[in-house]
Amino acid sequence: MQHPSEPRASASGGTPVIDLSHFNPPPDFARAKSAGIAAVIHKATEGATFLDPTYAARRPQAARAGLLWGAYHFGTADDPVAQAHFFLESVQPAPPILVLDYETNPSGLSMSIAQARTFVSTIQQLTGNWPGLYGGAWLKESLAETRDPVLANCWLWLSQFDPTAQIPSTWTAWTLWQFTDSATIPGIGRCDLSRFNGPDLAGFWTSGRPPSASAPEPPS
């Protein structure tokens, strides 16, 4: 995902999850698995027309290495219904873990909160599950201090490079916390790194539904 700043935290606990895109060099998923990585969430699409050219090839590579696989969509100001359909059509068969990446677009055509609501609602209508919502400063700024009843259905993937998680008031806990954008992972190189808030990552990955909310512990 985007890399707005250098990290100010590290973590030794929690099940590690990485996210990748075509910006990352060709991965060696077997080495990453041996190093303790449990899952990959890969960029699949952006807007209504852009397909990540590495998504399709890397998916079976990760599966052969025994890694769990998820997909994310980078939201833009394009029609959110068209974006949702494009995303799902591009990741078939759709993995249980689907995510909307809600952050500022370098082009200036960023997705609005209203468009995000439409996007996640469309995904839910088409799949039966609410997707995850990835966000940091732009999400907090967009929501201000209000609780959004639609986005609250999504599990939160928090992006924050601080020792303590500051959770938007729409949620009571994070499900994934991306705490650094400069982890060095064997077989991958420099990449984003997140941790899972719960004891059963495989169960979450199978169902696409987050564990019961619990008080999250900061990385140690």
The side-by-side strand order for the widest beta sheet comes to 1-2-4-5-6-7-8-9
Question: What is the N-to-C succession of helices and strands?
Answer: EHEEHEHEHEHEEEH
Number of domains: 1
Query: Regarding CATH, which class?
Result: Alpha Beta
CATH architecture field:
Alpha-Beta Barrel
Distance linking N and C termini? 23 Å
What does the main sheet amount to? 8 strands, mixed, barrel
Considering the protein shown, what is the CATH homologous superfamily?
A: Glycosidases
Helix fraction bin: 25-40%
Kindly state the number of beta strands. Answer: 9
Structural class: alpha/beta
- Apparent shape: globular
> What is the strand content?
15-25%
Global mean pLDDT? 90
